[in-house]
Design brief:
Length: 300
Amino acid sequence: MEIVRDPADAGWRHDGPIPGFGFDPPEAPVTGFEIGELAALRRRMDEGRLERFHRVESHALILITEGSGEHTVDFVTHPCRPGTLLWVRPGQVQRFGPADAVNGTHLVFTPAFPPRFTGADRLLTSWHGPTCRQLGAGREYAVISSLLAQLTAEYSHPDGTVSAEILRFVLAAVLLQIDRLPEPGAESGAGGSEVYARLIAELERSYASTRRAEDYARRLGYTVKTLTRACLAATGESAKHVIDTRVALEAQRLLAHTDEHVAVIGRRLGFKEPTNFSKFFTRLAGTTPGDFRAAHRDGG
């Protein structure tokens, strides 16, 4: 399936030096959606491709059903076992664990695929929502596993009989069920108000062009005070800190997963002077760009 991008996806385009990851299944009954087993995905990919760091272009949900292993997303390695649920978002950088260590359901969809008038819309704008949840074998696992089975059954219908509408609405149900899950303690506070959600969406589009809270307030029609109030409620941090954190995350990705010079990375993120970028990064990350790169060099 070569995903045809909807205009609503434009804010999620991440052209750049980090290798992207596109899916190319042999058959594509609908555009912008794919579901299947992890084992099947591995069989059609070049050996080792999934185990190399790559940037995700669409949303990916993974529910582990067999085995044990790990999955790395943006510098955090998550243990995987039956009942592990992963949500990897557009723009994030991931690496799968060793081949054949785990199996489960792998679902990928574009931001434009779910129906636009459901509460699932809000869940698609957050670039730092919870990535990993451990569901175990309880009721929550049963509910989400059942919905994924419904999606798999619909996606597997004979050619010409797959309903994109059914897929969209069942997917929305999956996302809303995930939203009901308790927040993992280490990643709590990813939700928030409409003001916060709009800021996060605009930040994803504009983080490389401006770091000024005033610019975001003007574009969104709010005051800086309103943005900060929304960010404090959602994350406990000011609007300026939320903005700077997003820029620092992209800098970390580029430092760890590319060979670009530090000055080039700084220019990509809107810093005209390398020294200003170095000071900014050191303040946010607690280490210099060079030291961060040395500590996070890709192994493959």
